[in-house]
Amino acid sequence: MLKGLFVALISAAFIFGIGKLSFAQHDQLGHEHGTSSAAADAVSKESVNAGNKICPVSGDQINEATKAAYEYKGKIYNLCCAGCIEEFKNNPEKYIQIIEEEKKK
What is the pTM for the complete model shown? Predict the structure, then answer.
């Protein structure tokens, strides 16, 4: 019984933690936003969608139901999931280059 309760609490903490990742990642000045697809429309109105259909981090096709978006220097980049936001933030220029190369194909 106690083991089941422990597993349930750990599972709930994990799910809650993942949910927070997709909604509240931005710097203090508010220039860069990590958002889930539900909040993608709330990203700065001046921003332009990069229009990428492939996640530059994982190489996976963007699924509209699970996608995440990240704003960087006035462009919104689509990612396959919230888990890819941190990796993109670590080296955005690398992943932007991947997007540009994919668009040329």
Answer: 0.58
